Amino acid sequence: MKKTVFLSTAAILFFCQIPGQLQARQDSIQILFIGDSITAGFGIEPEFSYPALVDDLLKKRGMDRIEIINSSISGSTTASALSRLKWSLGNKPDILVLALGANDGLRGLSTVEMEQNLDRTIALAGQNNIRVVLAGMQIPPNYGLKYSTAFKQVFPRLAKRHNIALIPFLLKDVAGIGHLNQPDGIHPNRAGQEIIAATVLEHLLDLLDSLDHL
User: Fold this and answer.
1) How far is 102 from 111, CA to CA, in rounded Å?
2) Residue 187 among the catalytic residues
3) 37 counts as catalytic
4) Is position 210 annotated as part of the catalytic site?
5) Whole-number Cα distances in Å, 141 to 41, 101, 104
6) pTM recorded for the entire structure
7) Domains with residue ranges and CATH for the chain
8) For residue 67, which phi and psi values (nearest 5 degrees)?
9) Which position among 37, 49, 72, 80 bears the catalytic label?
10) Which of 32, 72, 156, 212 could join 93 in a cystine, given CB atoms 3.0 to 4.6 angstroms apart?
């Protein structure tokens, strides 16, 4: 039976009040996903979102003591990242996949503030011995070369500063490809989510191999 857990905003707030009920089993590895609609699996069934597909891929490799928690919320920006990680600390996650920033870019929000938001979140994860995989994002050049370049550079700069794993572009081989996205041209369909899952898995495996209790 799948152990993937999908949390709505209300559920996150509820569990925040009783963190003891969220604690993972001592013999499991917990991977927490904090993202937006792409990671939440907007427009498709939850079991076809890439975090759930990562769970499937890990199980196929015999890693059946992995627990995936997807606490992604559609429409989220990096401004919510720190508080959402605080809500999830009761889970005692081992790994955080931090996949926020797309909505900051689409709304033309400050890249300086975006970097500060992510920086604080990564720092909190480090203080709690949580390994981080940072998912990089890019935005179309029609937002202006200066802004799109500044946006793209935030992610590798943070990864270097904190010495964490970086996925250079979460939507690699998916963004802008019609048959891999839903009609809105923004959100990946099932096929697109499968490609993202493979991309994320590649960066997770090294971290999982390094955890002594796997």
Assistant:
1) 11
2) yes
3) yes
4) no
5) 25, 16, 15
6) 0.86
7) 5-210 (3.40.50.1110)
8) -120, 125
9) 37
10) 32
